[in-house]
């Protein structure tokens, strides 16, 4: 009895015990479905997050004043000078050929805005930005227009507002062209930012009011303004190389002496994505362990069913041995049978797992249908391994049965 005959015999045995085979394969398919489903969902969510961050300027970096936590262990905190408007504009000029640079400044993080007899809570953020600010921050305008060159240069009292600001000041109205009072000055609304769903900070752009950078510098503030810089790489330049070049330019602008540490901080805009990738790595490990434990339970169930099968077919084994079947051939037959059941269950589990995982990923985030070829391959390898693990002992037991005793078994 060769390998092909053993395979055929395995399929005949599966067909003759169809209900038991279906139930056994179902145990395996549930285990594989949980493994592939969880990992597919994680991969799908990760793909959605990566796509989102690629559209949110993952090829950019921010420069701002360095902040020293200080005061710990008796150490005196170090005060770093603010980034001035002159320094920010110098950097922008020197970096203009290598990146699209935007300059902004936080005028107030807790401002109250008034329009007519309606007044908002003092939780609105006022930001001054230049001509590149909107595009570098990936803010889309739902209504209105961006600042004109004349408005930017002259410091005109115009503003672009977020959804929450517009909803509170001008409910069910188009805010474009309306007036509002902000920080003691009257501003004309020229645009509204498209809602971004609240953002990570609770308000995001929804509570933001953007005014021209020149206008921001004309508003009296309790302390001098510090400016933030964002550089977006537009060509094929390496982000790491551009950051090194930006560091050199900024040190020159800030006049940081040789050997002195940087008086500013450069942060990659994809740092949040890197953190999320690390988290999804932990989730993958957890998902794999959960799926593996489920499969371990399924393999024990399969081994139990194969043991019952050996007991039921004791007389059949005796006949085969009497006709000349060797120990190796009997063992091979039962192993093939266990592997075939696992593979059938595995195929069903993979299909269900991919559908379930993509369904979860679509419900949680947005993204295209994701096919995890790697995890499908891993699932099939695990199926064969489970078949070998679960089928070996029953196959070994069957091969060791005494043919005379087996023929007498009722």
Automatic annotation (TrEMBL):
<feature type="transmembrane region" description="Helical">
    <location>
        <begin position="370"/>
        <end position="393"/>
    </location>
</feature>
<feature type="transmembrane region" description="Helical">
    <location>
        <begin position="288"/>
        <end position="311"/>
    </location>
</feature>
<dbReference type="InterPro" id="IPR025857">
    <property type="entry name" value="MacB_PCD"/>
</dbReference>
<dbReference type="Pfam" id="PF02687">
    <property type="entry name" value="FtsX"/>
</dbReference>
<keyword id="KW-0472">Membrane</keyword>
<feature type="domain" description="ABC3 transporter permease C-terminal">
    <location>
        <begin position="289"/>
        <end position="403"/>
    </location>
</feature>
<feature type="domain" description="MacB-like periplasmic core">
    <location>
        <begin position="21"/>
        <end position="218"/>
    </location>
</feature>
<protein>
    <submittedName>
        <fullName>FtsX-like permease family protein</fullName>
    </submittedName>
</protein>
<dbReference type="InterPro" id="IPR003838">
    <property type="entry name" value="ABC3_permease_C"/>
</dbReference>
<feature type="transmembrane region" description="Helical">
    <location>
        <begin position="21"/>
        <end position="42"/>
    </location>
</feature>
<dbReference type="GO" id="GO:0022857">
    <property type="term" value="F:transmembrane transporter activity"/>
</dbReference>
<feature type="transmembrane region" description="Helical">
    <location>
        <begin position="338"/>
        <end position="364"/>
    </location>
</feature>
<keyword id="KW-0812">Transmembrane</keyword>
<dbReference type="Pfam" id="PF12704">
    <property type="entry name" value="MacB_PCD"/>
</dbReference>
<comment type="similarity">
    <text>Belongs to the ABC-4 integral membrane protein family.</text>
</comment>
<keyword id="KW-1133">Transmembrane helix</keyword>
<dbReference type="GO" id="GO:0005886">
    <property type="term" value="C:plasma membrane"/>
</dbReference>
<keyword id="KW-1003">Cell membrane</keyword>
<dbReference type="InterPro" id="IPR050250">
    <property type="entry name" value="Macrolide_Exporter_MacB"/>
</dbReference>
């Amino acid at each position: 009895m060769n390998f092909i005959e053993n395979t055929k015999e395995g399929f005949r045995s599966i067909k003759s015990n169809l209900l038991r085979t279906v139930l056994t394969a179902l145990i395996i398919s549930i285990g594989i479905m949980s493994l592939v489903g969880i990992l597919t969902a994680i991969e799908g969510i990760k793909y959605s997050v990566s796509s989102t961050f690629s559209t949110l300027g993952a090829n950019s970096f921010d420069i701002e004043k360095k902040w020293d936590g200080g005061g710990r262990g008796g150490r005196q905190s170090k005060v770093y000078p603010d980034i001035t408007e002159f320094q920010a504009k110098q950097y922008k000029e020197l970096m203009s050929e290598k990146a699209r640079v935007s300059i902004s400044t936080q005028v107030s993080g807790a401002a109250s805005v008034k329009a007519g007899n309606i007044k908002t809570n003092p939780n609105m953020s006022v930001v001054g930005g230049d001509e590149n600010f909107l595009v570098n921050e990936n803010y889309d305008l739902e209504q209105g227009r961006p600042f004109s060159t004349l408005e930017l240069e002259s410091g005109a009292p115009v503003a672009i507002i977020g959804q929450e600001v517009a909803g509170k000041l001008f409910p069910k109205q188009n805010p474009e062209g309306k007036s509002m009072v902000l920080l003691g000055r009257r501003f004309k609304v020229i645009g509204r930012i498209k809602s971004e769903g609240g953002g990570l900070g609770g308000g995001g752009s929804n509570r933001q009011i953007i005014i021209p950078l020149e206008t921001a510098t004309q508003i009296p503030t309790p302390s001098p303004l510090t400016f933030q810089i964002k550089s977006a790489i537009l060509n094929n330049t390496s982000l790491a190389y551009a950051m090194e070049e930006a560091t050199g330019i900024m040190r020159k602008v800030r006049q940081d002496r040789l050997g002195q540490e940087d008086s500013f901080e450069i942060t990659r805009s994809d740092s949040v994505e890197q953190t999320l990738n690390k988290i999804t790595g932990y989730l993958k490990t957890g998902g794999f362990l959960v799926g593996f434990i489920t499969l371990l339970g399924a393999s024990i169930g399969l081994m139990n069913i194969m043991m019952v099968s050996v007991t039921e077919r004791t007389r059949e084994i005796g006949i085969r041995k009497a006709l000349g079947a060797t120990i190796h051939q009997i063992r091979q037959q039962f192993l093939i049978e266990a592997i075939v059941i696992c593979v059938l269950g595995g195929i069903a589990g993979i299909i269900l797992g991919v559908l379930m995982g993509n369904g979860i990923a679509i419900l949680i985030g947005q993204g295209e249908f994701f096919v995890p070829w790697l995890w499908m391959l891993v699932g099939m390898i695990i199926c064969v391994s489970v078949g070998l693990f679960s089928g070996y002992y029953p196959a070994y037991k069957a091969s060791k049965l005494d043919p005379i005793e087996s023929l007498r078994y009722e």
